[in-house]
Specification:
The complex is a heterodimer of chains A (about 160) and B (about 80). Chain A is built from three helices and nine strands. Chain A has about 160 residues and is an alpha+beta fold. The longest helix of chain B has 11 residues. The chains are: A alpha+beta (about 160), B alpha+beta (about 80). At the A-B interface, strand 4, helix 2, helix 3 and strand 8 of A face loops of B. Chain A: One of its GO terms (biological process) is Mo-molybdopterin cofactor biosynthetic process.
Chain lengths: ~160, ~80
């Protein structure tokens, strides 16, 4: 089999429409791969006892895409057997329980794609300029990822 | 220089982007102080922001920036993607 027929690809998209698990997982399927690993980040209905009505995401889109490309590049250095990587992140208003991010990675065997998908989401939370606002019944709050090194350390 | 504001910094500044004139060579901390002169309400997030200069992260400090007309500088509050 000539594996050059299915060259490794990165699929990166930030969009305001609902994300599709099926679409993202199909992007990375390859006849050379026996594993597709997925991470789906969904929106929760509560925070510290407060009822969350919905969430709103915004991004520095051009830089966010650049930072996600860097993550994909790092993945290929760390796990050279990884085939395709897909990262879709939703922007704008996201109702409770819907996906805010879906990451899919394919590899010939499962270990590499499982490790790579974990690396992708952890690094995304630390370095990609996207912001989430949680809207409660009578207030709101800008969230801060614990992975963000310049966030206020008391939080 | 084009300054971009996001999330809480956009709320405090009351806008999302503007053109600002600053010296061509300036430390990142001096640049922050120039921006706070224009938008004093931003002072409260001094310890919680970094810049992205031409889409590369830069901490507020002594680092000397060499800015060109049209360069893009973004105020980056703590991120919360994912």
């Amino acid at each position: 089999m000539d594996e050059s027929e299915d060259v490794p690809k990165d699929f990166i998209k930030l969009k305001s429409e609902k994300l599709s698990v099926e679409e993202v997982s199909e992007l990375v399927i390859s006849p050379y791969c026996g594993a597709v690993s997925l991470f789906i980040g969904t929106t929760r209905n509560n925070f510290e006892g407060k009822k969350v009505i919905h969430l709103e995401y915004e991004a520095y889109t051009s830089m966010a895409e650049t930072e996600i490309k860097k993550i994909c590049r790092d993945v290929r250095q760390k796990w050279p057997s990884v085939k395709h990587v897909a990262v879709h992140h939703r922007l704008g208003l996201v109702p409770i329980t819907e996906a805010s991010v879906i990451i899919a990675v394919s590899s010939p065997h499962r270990v590499e794609s499982l490790e790579a998908v974990r690396y992708c989401i952890n690094t995304l939370k630390a370095s990609v300029p996207i912001w989430k606002k949680e809207i409660y019944e009578d207030e709101y709050s800008w969230k801060e990822n614990k992975e963000c090194f310049w966030a206020n350390s008391e939080k | 220089m084009l300054v971009l504001y996001f999330a809480r910094s956009a709320e405090l500044a009351g806008l999302r982007s503007e053109t600002v004139s600053v010296p061509r060579q300036i430390t990142s901390l001096q640049l922050w102080e120039e921006i706070v002169k224009i938008h004093p309400r931003l002072a409260v997030i001094r310890d919680q922001v970094v810049f992205a200069v031409q889409q590369e992260y830069v901490l507020l400090g002594d680092q000397l920036l060499v800015l060109h007309p049209g360069d893009e500088v973004a105020i980056i509050p703590p991120i919360s993607g994912g």
